[in-house]
From TrEMBL:
Pfam families: EXOC6_Sec15_N, Sec15_C. Residues 45-115 form a coiled coil. The lineage of its organism: Eukaryota, Metazoa, Chordata, Craniata, Vertebrata. Residues 416-712 form the Exocyst complex subunit EXOC6/Sec15 C-terminal domain. Keywords: Coiled coil, Exocytosis, Transport. GO terms for biological process: Golgi to plasma membrane transport; intracellular protein transport; vesicle tethering involved in exocytosis. Gene3D superfamilies: Dsl1p vesicle tethering complex, Tip20p subunit, domain D, Exocyst complex subunit Sec15 C-terminal domain, N-terminal subdomain. GO terms for cellular component: exocyst; plasma membrane. This is EXC6B protein.
Amino acid sequence: MAELESLETAAEHERILREIESTDTACIGPTLRSVYDGEEHGRFMEKLEARIRNHDREIEKMCNFHYQGFVDSITELLKVRGEAQKLKNQVTDTNRKLQNEGKELIIAMEELKQCRLQQRNISATVDKLTLCLPVLEMYSKLREQMKSKRHYPALKTLEHLEHTYLPQVSHYRFCKIMVDNIPKLREEIKEVSMSDLKDFLESIRKHSDKIGETAMKQAQQQRNLDNIVSQHPRISGGKKSKKEVCASSDLEVKNTSPMSEQDSGILDVEDEDEDEEVPGAQDLVDFSPVYRCLHIYSVLGARETFENYYRKQRRKQARLVLQPPSNMHETLDGYRKYFNQIVGFFVVEDHILHTTQGLVNRAYIDELWEMALSKTIAALRTHSSYCSDPSLVLDLKNLIVLFADTLQGYGFPVNQLFDMLLEIQDQYSETLLKKWSGVFRNILDLDNYSPIPVANEEVYKKIVGQFPFQDAELEKQQFPKKFPFSEFVPKVYNQIKEFIYACLKFSEDLHLSSTEVDDMIRKSTNLLLTRTLSNCLQNVIKRKNVGLTELVQIIINTTHLEKSCKFLEEFITNITNVLPETVHTTKLYGTTTFKDARHAAEEEIYTNLNQKIDQFLQLADYDWMAMEPGSKASDYLVDLIGFLRSTFAVFTHLPGDVDVHSTMSGKVAQTACMSACKHLSTSLMQLLLEAEVRQLTLGALQQFNLDVEECER
């Protein structure tokens, strides 16, 4: 058993030795570990030493066998060492020379290295600058646009800069500064554009009257053109009306330098003659500040804010425009300036309505117009009531018509203005009546109340041309001769016609029918006849110093004026083309007026005669206790009869046609005589029945009887 173990141990030691001999030194650790793990260290060391001795013997044998070769090799090695030393020296020398020669190359290589580094840096810099320069250029462009007040392009540039250029170079510090400034720049653009809008609104407010004046001139020219076309329809074909030409040009908006004065909203326009071309109202206005501000606020998402601000400011301006000056009624220029401002305001709003989308809408415009219409009508009612000059009222009416036609051309309803003109027509009639009252008074005061003498045919035809008078008997008479009436007859007749013309002027351009015009003229003429002329005649008749001759002449005059009423009817019919037989046609009351005046004159004659009789009777001095009567009638009675005889001679020797003469003799003279006789008899009876006469003598009664008989004769 022990032998078997020793054999195994010997075999294991042999294997370990072989493994040590054949294994790499780095891997011998596990093999030695197996030796130390065993218990036969001594025996293994013995075997190892025995193996070393064996190898030493083999080495010695090998050396002994190759000794001569070894010696030869050593000899060769010694030779090689000498040559190697030489070679070393040569290599050292060559290296030294190479080092000396390579210093310049090394310096050049270092320089080349630095150049390559710089070139790489420059290339990188160029690449970066290629990205940064467009950003800087866009920012410079933005600043330049803002400096030149081109705000809308500046906003577009800002948007392009923010979304296209800055994201490519966002890591640079200057770009971060730009990004931080973008909101400030937007706010600056917003504020500057709003400032331009405020300047525009202020300028528009100041120049509204100029804009309105131009628009009203344009409307006047269009009306004149329409009148010409209506009078000469042949020449209208193929010609474009001025209104159409101006309408096309009105839509053109000027784009000028932002620094020019167009940014203020108004262009300078020289005052032009009426015959020259009047520019379109919108040609005076540069609306670019509104458009720019609208676009800018739209891009910034604040369009609603802008719309509200614009409408609010324009409403305030509308209220200022609609506030009339306190002295507007004094001159026509006051009304004209007031209308010009209103027209200018709405011309601007109408243009804004048609050239912007939604800045103002039709409902907003209609609301403003309703307010303007009510305030304008109220102001006109108030101020026109102060006008006492019919010429001013007529000019005001023409101005209102032009005002209405101008705004109607822009699509605004103006029916209420024409309705108000009908109210002003009543006031116009009143001012005309006051004016003609003065005219009639002047005519009646200056009249000599004598028949008009005619020295020749020319004067005769002139008077017949002024007043419709025909008398065959008078025409046959030789010159000089006399018309039966005095000068106030043709003058009053012509003034009545002038009044009718004045009424007709007011009715022009009011879009009234012929029947309405005819009715208006007839009503006003009736007021002139029944109120104004009638009062003037009554005042003349009632004057204290009027004589019987004048009263008789007034009767003759009113008779002829009464006959002329049918010619006034024809005159009105001719200018209105409405026949008197038409239903609802008002009749003239001139016949009644002149009849009333004539009756008043007759009554005045009777009254004056009775007053004269009373004056003579006051001279009566009867001696009721006289014993004998006188030989003749009393002196006072003789004088009274002489007065009456001369007075009635005036009636019986009146010049004129047969009709007038018979009227005066048959009616006025007869009635006056009867009235005088009746009054005289009554007065004589009163003398007898007076309370103071308590007793009479026969002589007194006989004297009284003589006076009565004188009256009878």
